Amino acid sequence: MDINQIKLDNKFKLVEASAGTGKSFTLAHLVLRNVLEKKIKPDEILLLSFTKNTCSELRDKILLRFQDLKLYLQNHNESKIDNTLKDWYLKFKEKEKSKKKIISEIDNFVNEIYKLQVTTFHAFCNNIIDEYSIEIGLTQDPYIENNIDNLYKDVIDNLWIDDFLNLNHELISAVNKKKISSRFGSRINKSFFVEILKNIDQENICKFQINNKYKIIDLNNYFNEFFYLNWNEFCVEWNKKGKELFLQLIELGKLIKESGGKSQIYAAKPRNDKFNQIICWIEEINKRLNSKNVIDFIYDISKDDLLSKYFYIENISKEINKHNLKLDFTKFNLLQDKIYKIKEGFYTEFVRIFTQLAYIKLIELKKSFSIFNFNDLIKTVENTFLDSEISNSNTLSKIQKRFKCVLVDEFQDTDITQWNLIKKFFNTKNHFLLCVGDPKQAIYKFRGGDIETYLDARSNAIEVFSLTDNYRSSKKLIDVLNKLYKNGLKQSKLNYSKLTSRINENINPEFKFKDVFEIVEFSKKETDIEDLVTHYIVNFILNNKEIDINKIAILTLNNSQCLDFKKKLNQFNLPCKIQNKQNIFDTEASSLLFLFIECLLNPRSLKNITLLATSKFIEIKLEDLLDHGISNNLEILINKCITWSQELREKGFLNIVNELLINYKSSSIIQDSDLNSNLFQLSEIVEIELMNNDFNLNKVFNWYKNQLDHILRICTGEDFLTKDYNLQNGINLSTIHSSKGLEFEIVLCPYLSIISNKSNKIKGPIWKSNIDRNIYINISNNYAKVEKFKLIEEEDLFKESERLIYVALTRSKYKLIVFNDLEDTNNILNNDLLNNLENINIYKSTFEVRIEKEKIKEIFSKFQTNRLNNNLWKIDNVNKKISNVFNSDQFISYSSYSSWIRKDKNIDAVINQYKDYEDNISIIKDSNFKNSKNYPNYFSYPNPLSEFPKGTIAGTCLHKIIERFEFRNDNNQELIDLIIEELNFHQIDTSLAFKVKDAILRIINISLGRELQNKKLVDIPNEYLIKELKYDLTLSYEGRNINSNDISKCFFLDQEYEFGEEYANKINDLQIMNKGFHSGCIDCVFPVGNKLEDSKWWVIDWKSNLISGSDNSDCLPRNYNYENMRDEMIKHHYPLQSHLYLLALHRLLKWRLKNYQPHKHLGGYIYLFLKGLPDFELFEKSNSKDISPGVFISNAPLKRINYLDNLF
């Protein structure tokens, strides 16, 4: 449409601006028209946007609009302007023929443009409060601070001391033991309440209703009465309906069986009368319970048991849905409600009350100190002008008279309160009110954006205009987008207006692609998506050598995916830059700089100095440290850190960090522009903090440590987001959210096909009602009363995901590549978009995934980076290089098993080729298993960890999950939550969570063989499992150093055991010659036996080694037979490791176990190859007498252990 056709009369108008149609252009042009046509002054114009950056950009575009017109009027024949401005002027000059007068009016506007209010909504409300504080009723000037995390923490700390710790100790114990599934963690603790308080306080749509009665009640009595009442009501209802429910569940078991399904919970013929079991349980409780002591029984009654696992609706619903059955349980709603109230209702009530107390205290504190966050600004204005019964007509009139033209940008991100205030102030006969937005780009629900508000406003607009001319994408690409969205956005029920491309078709020849839209099909079971995208880019760059890589963008769903791509691209030496704005203290640079500060503070801490030496700052290889002697290598670095700490006040922190970078010329930092610029930004922040604290490094260290904790952090907000210095070119990596408003010549979208109605699963304890706009607290995720909130929120997020796809697909100017997973086509991309293409096959990509070696060399040389661009730091007087001469001074050192095996000259090639866990990859010849005895078919089924990434981070993640998981916890949801938490922390794709869960279940349920009485890890009580057992062994004593030859002699003993003389010779290859201590950590230790005092103790170690066949890279149990595992053990010196573990265990038992006898109590070692374990159920059914693939077991060779005990 022609925006010159928009009348400037005082009526509410709405402009819908699809992506790339010139939203900012429209707003700037309308400002110009209002100024020149209606003679409106700069201080009579209000333009509301949603970030400081967009406000700044809009102000610049408005200024440019006036300047363009002025240049055109001054140089009519020479200056070119766009048709919109030209057409407007040709019509306008009929009224105002004097160019000189128009130029004068432009000059007046430009001279007073500082009076133009282009501001965020929060800042607008802040201005109202500042100017009308007396009328509003504020007694003192507000302190505006959006980062009040410390205040939330203080409130909860005080509440814990004043209220929680004064509760009955049994109640405290029950709360501490309770495990929940929530978005704020699995425990009801202080950090849990801090997050609740923060979310409620910063919520801008729904309200939390305050109930002051909880301030005056006796909490112990209240909880006692609450639980006693609910217990009695449950007992009554159970006697009425319990038997009938049990019979209905038997019927459920029958239906599951008849449908061919299998349930681990519900059987057609239960072994026990579960109804009577509950009756007996109730009678047993009631014998001991009375109205005074009910709190003593809270945990016993509310813990997971038969009632919750068998009779509770949560598991019933899961089984009905799982087997797609029709069975009505609504008649038991009242009984289910009573079960809920004794199982979860008490804890929900506890959380509700403590949230009330915390929120009341927070409001009191904020009021007493007049602290306002951004939402408080809006709430205060809302309370004054919308909710107050007192008339504020005089103040309202003053605000209304100030402005005549009001424009609202990004209107789709407005919430109901903001819109109600805009209407109240400016939807009058005296105001030109116009809002610009695109509901198809409403993707900020998590920040308070509310599309329903937009749609409601749209229905009330006097006029609605649609911008359909696109100034971003080529004609060919727009044609594809028009086809994709010809039916609109189905889930969101939004129409799509067909667009027309208006960009100049005489573009650079490198952007005239034959295929402007490509669909790359793949199977996630067979292909790693990050590898596939990287290979596509490599091929694309090599086939389009004239393309500037700055023009390419990869759009992801989250930051961790950006980091994944950064690693993949770096493997091909491809430079890249992450566009997403994240808190600077959440970056890799932050942890690096923290380590450096720690070394300046404690330069003689060997652990930290060693970490610094091997970090990206310096990159001294661990093997080099060992080659030259740890003490000699690190002494120089220690002395440097001492010198730097002494020079801190004189040189400044920024200079010292720059000196560190120049001295060591780290290739990791040279090749990573993001890391370099983040280090600079952080160093500036630390420099300021040091100056503010008189260069007290200890104070700054503690302050910095708090910034690494999300709860304690005070450095938040826009000022602490990563800055885009862009010191070198690179492929753009961005989340879709961050890409909104941006455009790129070539865009790749790898993850759109994983967006489906299963993508968003909502958890409590905060539930928001779209009906009454209230916040409700409930720890249950399945309680009937929160189910409707949950379903609505999940549906809203699903609709938003559809709009997120739209944003991604509309970022490209000339070429768009979408990756489509063929394993799961039941999603928005396939169902609602790609199906609209008449002949989809013409868009399917045919690129060759495989990259030839010559091409890899070419891409490496093309982007070779040899030096660090240090223009950013601008430091002159720094040392140019550091001496490589090492002194012979000696001091105590620590070494690990992993540092020893790097000395094995026979495996250097492997170690240099891969890093850490990636070096544990073996490709075996087919004959290794084809000629062995026959194995069952299921040994050829891939292990669930086949798709799990390799490398140090992945291995650490698996170890952490196993370490944290309680093997006897049969709550699968808790396990999934734990896995997702660790995957997120280690930045690994969370879609692998269920695969990891299956792998964990194999680990704990596989039989460990006859030597261990066919026990499984799940059989071992949690209290008998010792995980992550650390130990130290001396390597020198009274001047005598232990060397590899000394250790090797132990393997000449006990020749009847595994790894004898042949392995002893391999030990000599390690060339161990250390002083100090050997440090290690055993994954797990546990006893096996009928009585603890008679049990044998075993060491177990988790190994994520990949042993694959030459024809198949999957983790197949058949590859993990005895011979292959034995070879793997020798290859990585696990025999040495296992014997050191047994020595540590031997000494522990000798110290802690009364009447310890090695032959009776020292069991042996087990190496569990996680990726080689078969399906445990199939293995159990086979009744095999052999040890399972993936399990390598040996008894303790006592003569060897005694020898090592004397040696160390």
Polypeptide structure, described:
By secondary structure, the chain is α/β, with parallel strands linked by helices. Helix content is 47%, strand content 12%. The protein has 48 helices and 31 strands. It has a six-stranded parallel beta sheet with strand order 3-2-8-9-1-10. A six-stranded parallel beta sheet has the order 13-20-17-14-16-15. A hairpin with a 2-residue loop joins strand 5 and strand 6. Helix 7 (149-162) packs across helix 9 (190-201) and helix 25 packs across helix 26 (630-646). The relative contact order is 0.08.
Which features characterize this protein?
1208 residues; alpha/beta; 48 helices; 31 strands; 47% helix; 12% strand; globular
**Number of extended strands:** 31
Catalogue the unreliable spans: 866-870, 874-894, 905-919, 926-932
Task: Give the rounded overall mean pLDDT.
Answer: 85
Main sheet specs: 6 strands, parallel
Number of helices: 48
Structural class: alpha/beta
**For the CA atoms, what is the radius of gyration?**
34 Å
Give the helix proportion (percent range).
Answer: 40-55%
What is the rounded distance between the termini? 85 Å
- Work out the strand percent: 5-15%
Main-sheet strand order equals 3-2-8-9-1-10
Shape descriptor: globular
